Amino acid sequence: MDTQIIQEIQAVMANYFNGIYEGDISRLENAFDQKAILYGDINGEPYLKDLQAYIEGVAHRRSPKEQGEDFRMEMISIEVVGNNAIVKARLPMLGYNYYDLLSLTRLNGQWKIVNKLFTHVDV
Questions:
Q1: Of 20, 27, 53, 72, which residue is 20 to 30 A from 38 by alpha carbon distance?
Q2: pLDDT by residue (tens digit) across 62-82?
Q3: Domain hosting residue 111, numbered range
Protein backbone atom coordinates (compact mmCIF):
# COMPACT_ATOMS: atom_id res chain seq x y z
CA MET A 1 0.00 0.00 0.00
CA ASP A 2 1.26 3.49 -0.85
CA THR A 3 2.83 4.97 2.30
CA GLN A 4 1.96 8.53 1.29
CA ILE A 5 -1.73 7.64 1.04
CA ILE A 6 -1.59 5.95 4.46
CA GLN A 7 0.09 9.03 5.95
CA GLU A 8 -2.57 11.30 4.42
CA ILE A 9 -5.36 9.14 5.87
CA GLN A 10 -3.59 9.02 9.25
CA ALA A 11 -3.49 12.84 9.22
CA VAL A 12 -7.27 12.96 8.63
CA MET A 13 -7.74 10.48 11.47
CA ALA A 14 -5.53 12.57 13.78
CA ASN A 15 -7.81 15.56 13.11
CA TYR A 16 -10.85 13.36 13.72
CA PHE A 17 -9.59 11.79 16.95
CA ASN A 18 -8.16 15.01 18.39
CA GLY A 19 -11.20 16.99 17.32
CA ILE A 20 -13.45 14.63 19.26
CA TYR A 21 -11.10 14.26 22.24
CA GLU A 22 -10.47 18.00 22.65
CA GLY A 23 -13.83 19.26 21.35
CA ASP A 24 -11.93 21.09 18.59
CA ILE A 25 -14.61 21.83 16.01
CA SER A 26 -12.21 23.18 13.38
CA ARG A 27 -10.24 19.91 13.38
CA LEU A 28 -13.46 17.93 12.96
CA GLU A 29 -14.67 20.15 10.15
CA ASN A 30 -11.30 19.67 8.44
CA ALA A 31 -11.61 15.87 8.66
CA PHE A 32 -15.12 15.64 7.17
CA ASP A 33 -16.65 16.51 3.83
CA GLN A 34 -19.40 19.07 4.44
CA LYS A 35 -22.03 16.67 3.04
CA ALA A 36 -21.06 13.78 5.33
CA ILE A 37 -23.78 11.72 6.98
CA LEU A 38 -23.44 9.96 10.34
CA TYR A 39 -25.40 6.78 11.10
CA GLY A 40 -25.24 4.51 14.08
CA ASP A 41 -26.78 3.55 17.35
CA ILE A 42 -26.24 4.53 20.95
CA ASN A 43 -27.49 1.98 23.46
CA GLY A 44 -29.57 0.41 20.69
CA GLU A 45 -31.21 3.70 19.74
CA PRO A 46 -30.85 4.75 16.09
CA TYR A 47 -28.71 7.82 15.39
CA LEU A 48 -28.75 9.83 12.16
CA LYS A 49 -27.27 13.31 11.77
CA ASP A 50 -25.76 15.46 9.10
CA LEU A 51 -22.35 16.95 9.76
CA GLN A 52 -23.63 20.29 11.03
CA ALA A 53 -25.87 18.68 13.66
CA TYR A 54 -23.00 16.42 14.75
CA ILE A 55 -20.59 19.38 15.04
CA GLU A 56 -23.13 21.30 17.12
CA GLY A 57 -23.45 18.33 19.47
CA VAL A 58 -19.69 18.10 19.96
CA ALA A 59 -19.46 21.86 20.49
CA HIS A 60 -22.07 21.78 23.27
CA ARG A 61 -20.72 18.91 25.36
CA ARG A 62 -17.78 18.64 27.70
CA SER A 63 -15.00 16.96 25.77
CA PRO A 64 -13.31 13.77 26.97
CA LYS A 65 -10.17 15.87 27.62
CA GLU A 66 -12.16 18.35 29.76
CA GLN A 67 -13.54 15.41 31.73
CA GLY A 68 -10.02 14.17 32.45
CA GLU A 69 -10.22 11.04 30.30
CA ASP A 70 -7.09 9.49 28.85
CA PHE A 71 -6.76 9.53 25.07
CA ARG A 72 -7.35 5.91 24.00
CA MET A 73 -8.69 6.26 20.46
CA GLU A 74 -7.04 4.03 17.87
CA MET A 75 -7.19 2.94 14.27
CA ILE A 76 -7.70 -0.79 13.93
CA SER A 77 -7.40 -1.05 10.15
CA ILE A 78 -7.20 0.91 6.91
CA GLU A 79 -8.27 -0.46 3.54
CA VAL A 80 -7.70 1.59 0.41
CA VAL A 81 -9.20 0.87 -3.02
CA GLY A 82 -8.46 3.56 -5.60
CA ASN A 83 -9.65 6.91 -4.27
CA ASN A 84 -11.74 5.34 -1.51
CA ALA A 85 -10.81 4.03 1.91
CA ILE A 86 -12.43 2.44 4.94
CA VAL A 87 -10.99 3.00 8.40
CA LYS A 88 -12.11 0.86 11.32
CA ALA A 89 -11.48 2.64 14.61
CA ARG A 90 -12.15 2.25 18.31
CA LEU A 91 -13.06 5.28 20.42
CA PRO A 92 -13.51 4.48 24.11
CA MET A 93 -14.80 7.72 25.65
CA LEU A 94 -17.57 9.35 27.67
CA GLY A 95 -18.55 6.00 29.18
CA TYR A 96 -18.92 4.29 25.82
CA ASN A 97 -16.86 1.84 23.77
CA TYR A 98 -17.51 3.10 20.26
CA TYR A 99 -16.45 1.38 17.07
CA ASP A 100 -16.47 3.45 13.88
CA LEU A 101 -16.42 2.41 10.25
CA LEU A 102 -15.41 5.56 8.41
CA SER A 103 -15.66 5.93 4.64
CA LEU A 104 -13.13 8.31 3.15
CA THR A 105 -12.86 9.59 -0.40
CA ARG A 106 -10.19 11.66 -2.06
CA LEU A 107 -11.90 14.92 -3.08
CA ASN A 108 -9.94 17.67 -4.86
CA GLY A 109 -6.69 15.95 -3.86
CA GLN A 110 -7.59 15.64 -0.16
CA TRP A 111 -8.94 12.71 1.85
CA LYS A 112 -12.22 13.47 3.63
CA ILE A 113 -14.59 11.42 5.76
CA VAL A 114 -17.84 11.17 3.81
CA ASN A 115 -19.70 8.70 6.03
CA LYS A 116 -19.47 7.64 9.66
CA LEU A 117 -21.12 4.40 10.73
CA PHE A 118 -20.77 3.62 14.42
CA THR A 119 -22.01 1.59 17.36
CA HIS A 120 -21.31 1.13 21.06
CA VAL A 121 -20.18 -2.35 22.15
CA ASP A 122 -20.10 -3.32 25.82
CA VAL A 123 -16.62 -4.20 27.01
A1: 72
A2: 999 999 999 999 999 999 999
A3: 3-120
